[in-house]
Amino acid sequence: MASLDIVIMAAGKGTRMKSARPKVLHRLAGVSLLQHVLDAVAELAAAKTLVVTGHGAETVEAELGAPGLTFVRQEPQLGTGHAVQQVVPHLDQDGTTLILNGDVPLIRPATAAALAAACGGTKLALLTIELADASGYGRIVREGSAVKTIVEHKDANTAQRAIREVYTGMLAAPTAWLKRAVMALVNDNAQREYYLTDIVAMAVAEGLPVVATQPASDTEVLGVNSPVQLAELERRYQRACAAALMEDNGVRFADPARFDVRGTLKCGGDVDIDVGCVFEGAVTLADNVKIGAHCVIRNTRIDAGAVIQPFTHMDGAHIGPGAIVGPFARLRPGADLGQDVHIGNFVEVKNSTLAKGAKANHLAYLGDATVGERVNYGAGSISANYDGANKHRTVIGADVHVGSNCVLVAPVTIGEGATIGAGSTIAKDAPAGQLTLARPKQVSMAGWTRPKKTRPGA
Ligand code: UD1
Ligand code: MG
């Protein structure tokens, strides 16, 4: 096939977003609108991908710059036809040019590919859809079945406004023809803009075939112009993700409407997910995993049968099979829990491995620690891993019992089977198999009396 160029229009202001941020940088499922479009066309293997920027151009270019992507400035913004005029010098000599919008994020790769294929370098192909409420859109005017022209809403007469088939803002055109056509556009219309849509009537006049293709659903062609529309599209996206997980993997959601994935979530069989959970980055849940309500889980792998209780926060963690975590636990990057490990409420784990059966059930911190099998790490105990300049490791052997409220001052090693008495500050290695205590001896003073308050003048 002759070469494919892709143009993404992203210069518009987005006034109705009422935001200082350029519209195409607003996020849907954690990814910018423009990045969604770039991801959708990535597999089309275009010769060139050109993004037209204008409002907030510096910010857009800085945030999305990537090899193989060319930004072309449009200043001022005189309409969609004027936007395409700016890229004319960058387009190839022949082949197909596919034009998409930076604020229409959920276009599917298959729909974009079908639109480009419908053009095939020889026809003008429009992506159109029938809408119950077509107001605001350019209407597809046909004679019989043949497309004759597109009339913008503001320029349409009453009969034309009754047409329900609209132009979605996406088209594919023979590149050489498109270059000539857009340079010939004029702006004698209601908005004094250069309308890209005027190339349709030009094609008809020249005898270039015009065809129309349709997306699978309107979700693919809905644009984002306001926070309300952004929130609606976000929900559609999330509902579709939940539906796919239910249909493909049998995931049971307490409520698929209260679920958010911002990245990729892979699930095994018999997974239960309670309400209000957020999954970010790459998350994998193996068979029989249960996620309690209101967990935030990011870049984490959870093995079979693990149970995550409500309000747990995880980032960059690995949870072994059968482990029980939470409620209110915090696992930070490098937290690696073995099989059947228990992490309870208000326990924070960072860059630490806990071997099979180890437990830290209440109010504790494990940072830069290696914890052996079956260790019991008491309430309120912490690894003092930071000396103010450097981090140091704490190594706790198998079957160690660390009492409550201990401070393990790293670097320090607790030998296998050792017991650390409650309230100890351990700054030297503790030998295996022994009780180590590091706290003042308890004293009681017989005959001691409490001081009494003295009265002035008494
Ligand atoms: C456009 C179409 C209309 C279609 C609708 C679909 C034209 C003339 N009209 O109308 O037929 O039904 O989209 O949503 O094309 N942009 C630029 N530079 C500009 C103007 C716009 O880059 O000078 C970009 C915008 O950022 C946006 C896209 O082009 O991504 C569409 O612009 P917009 O102003 O939304 O066009 P509509 O008036 O909605
Ligand atoms: Mg628009």
Gross geometry: elongated
Which consecutive residue ranges, at least 5 long each, have pLDDT under 50?
Answer: none
In angstroms, what separates the terminal alpha carbons?
Answer: 107 Å
Largest sheet report: 23 strands, parallel
CATH C-level category of the largest domain: Alpha Beta
Rg from alpha-carbon coordinates: 32 Å
Strand content: 25-35%
* Strand elements, count: 37
Quickly give the structural class: alpha/beta
Per CATH, the superfamily of the largest domain is: Spore Coat Polysaccharide Biosynthesis Protein SpsA, Chain A
Q: What fold name goes in the CATH topology slot of the largest domain?
A: Spore Coat Polysaccharide Biosynthesis Protein SpsA, Chain A
| Helicity level | 10-25%
Count of discrete domains:
2
The tally of helices reads 8
Q: Report the bound ligands by name, code or SMILES.
A: uridine-diphosphate-N-acetylglucosamine, magnesium ion
Instruction: Supply the CATH architecture of the largest domain.
Output: Alpha-Beta Complex
> What's the pLDDT, averaged over the residues?
97
Please provide a written account of the structure:
The chain folds into 2 domains: 4-221, Spore Coat Polysaccharide Biosynthesis Protein SpsA, Chain A (Alpha-Beta Complex), CATH 3.90.550.10; 227-436, Hexapeptide repeat proteins (UDP N-Acetylglucosamine Acyltransferase, domain 1). It has 458 residues and is an alpha/beta fold. The strands form 5 sheets. The protein has a 23-stranded parallel sheet that branches. A 7-stranded mixed sheet has the order 5-4-1-6-10-7-11, sandwiched between helices. A 3-stranded parallel sheet has the order 30-33-36, with no helix packed on it. The protein has 8 helices and 37 strands.
